[in-house]
Amino acid sequence: MVDEIAWYDRSAFIAAACDSTIPGLVSRSRRTVECDVDGGGDHGRRRVSVTFAPEDDDVRRPWERDPSAPLLAPPRSVADRAGNKIDAVSIFRAAGVRTPPSTVLAAGATAVPDEVSTWMRDGAVVVQRAANNLIGRGTRLLRTRGEWAALTDWAGEPLKVSRYLPGLPVTVSGCVGRDATVVSGVSQQLVGIAELGAGWGTHCGNQLLDDADVSQEVLSQCRWACRAVGEHLRGWGFLGVFGIDAVLGRDDRVWVVEINPRFQTVVSLVHAAEVERGLLPLLGVHVLANTTPLTPLLATDDRGSPRLRSGQLVLHFTRSGRVGGLPQTGCYRMSASGVVLRVPDRALSRLAPDEALVWAHAAEGDRAEAGDEAVLVQFGHRVATVGHPPRLTSEARSWLAWLRFATHHPTPHPDPGRTGPGRTAARPHRDHDR
After folding, report:
1. Nearest to 122 by CA among 162, 82, 84, 172
2. CA nearest neighbour of 191 among 159, 210, 167
3. How many helices (H) and strands (E) are present in the chain, helices listed first?
4. Which long-range contacts (CB under 8 A, 24 or more apart) does 219-225 make?
5. CA–CA–CA angle 243, 389, 182 (5° rounding)
6. Which alpha helices (DSSP H) does 260-312 contain, by range?
7. 6 vs 1, 70, 108, 292, CA distance in Å?
8. How many C-beta atoms surround the C-beta of residue 405 within 10 A?
9. What is the DSSP code string of 146-203?
10. How far is residue 224's CA from residue 214's CA, in Å, rounded to a whole number?
11. Structure confidence at residue 66 (pLDDT)
């Protein structure tokens, strides 16, 4: 179909997990302009571009102006509508999937509706802005009426208030094609782990799930919900990779809470599982979905449970300021005594039990805010218990201790927008999940 697929992101972790199974796939940094917007005189090659979050990319994207390498992404208006946390409720209802009870507060509303008061008496509520950002800063948990005052900075916009449902947070990854919706990995979403510098609801990592963790019936519900949402999105003109966030309730029912109309961090783990099973990774399916019908090319639109039990963690900056330094991106091995050494790079699907892949998501001198993602670390095994709240394994804690030592969190600077005479610090690209 194409000779070259240019993957644009701040680091190559999602493309790297494809493990060279997609010919012509190259990774290019979004931090610098690395493509020739005039096509480079190479008009004979069929080239396309793919990026992590086209609907929420706040940097200039010169590759969009390259006529010889079109960006494969849904129209911005379609992605914006799918990613709107308030409008998502109508999508879930139209798709026939279960979603928590919710109500919408008009911009400027100050009174607490009776139904919200009832939910808060029984437990808590989740408040979301329509245009939530990628790491959950647009989502808050309120347990008491007294916490309502914390929403004053959002008073000028409508808000969705949902009943909080305790349970296991999961993500289901899929891809909408012209004729079918492909459903792939189901993962546990690790959120709100304070040890990783995160607040409530902040994405802290993922680990793949199978029927040894939750019942096959529940996994089937998750995949059905993802497919139903994808089929509805196709009617809007949406094509390509997407995911849903859901909660596995204590009654084993699946409650869908969000749509992510883009790639997600967990797709790297999904890629590794697909490679291990001899399947075309989702990034490749995304390209096919934008160029040709999927049914004649793929044996099934349900990729089942993964055999690979990989996981990943995200360390967050705890202070705002200029980044002092991060561990170098690469593969590392931890000895029994806790010594960590750099080893030759290898794919995620080929990691040994004592190895991890480290991906720096910022660079020395960058301006970072407290809560921004600093480092992503990937493992070939589980990193936490399957449950909510999750508990990190002893191996994960050992790696976290090393990460804390190797990561120099930002230090305050009198002029945080400056890095030297006449120079402005590059703002790190927005963090990935939620």
Report:
1. 162
2. 167
3. 8, 21
4. 219/186, 219/305, 221/253, 221/254, 222/170, 222/172, 222/186, 222/246, 222/248, 222/254, 223/172, 223/183, 223/186, 223/302, 225/95, 225/97, 225/98, 225/172, 225/254, 225/256
5. 15
6. 267-276, 282-289
7. 14, 10, 44, 19
8. 10
9. GGGGGGGGGTTS-EEEEE---EEEEEEEEEE-SS-EEEEEEEEEEE--GGGT--TT-E
10. 15
11. 65
Tens-digit pLDDT string for the chain (434 aa): 899 999 988 889 999 999 999 989 998 875 544 444 444 445 578 899 998 876 554 444 555 666 778 889 998 889 888 989 998 999 999 999 999 999 998 887 777 888 888 998 888 999 988 876 555 677 888 888 777 776 777 878 899 999 999 999 999 999 999 999 999 999 999 998 999 988 888 899 999 999 899 999 999 999 999 999 999 999 999 999 999 999 999 888 999 999 999 999 999 999 999 999 999 999 999 999 999 999 988 888 888 877 788 999 999 998 899 998 899 999 999 999 989 999 999 999 899 999 999 999 988 888 888 888 999 999 999 999 999 889 999 999 999 999 989 988 777 654 444 333 333 333 333 333 43
Instruction: Provide CB contacts within 8 A for 145, sequence distance 6+.
Output: 112, 117, 120
Alpha-carbon span 388 to 251, nearest angstrom:
15
22-26 contacts: CB < 8 A, separation 24 or more?
22/280, 22/281, 22/283, 22/284, 25/283, 25/284
Q: Of 24, 27, 50, nearest to 359 (Cα)?
A: 27
One-letter amino acid identity for 216? Q
Which tokens belong to 117?
């008061």
Domains and CATH numbers, the chain: 4-72 (no CATH), 73-98+165-434 (3.30.470.20), 101-163 (3.30.1490.20)
Phi, psi of 171, rounded to the nearest 5 degrees: -125, 135
CA distance 346 to 380: 12
Phi and psi at 260, nearest 5°, equal: -115, 100
Give me the DSSP letters along 66-123: -TTS-B----HHHHHHHH-TTTHHHHHHHHT-----EEEEPTT--SPPHHHHHHHHHS
Identify the three-state secondary structure at position 413: coil
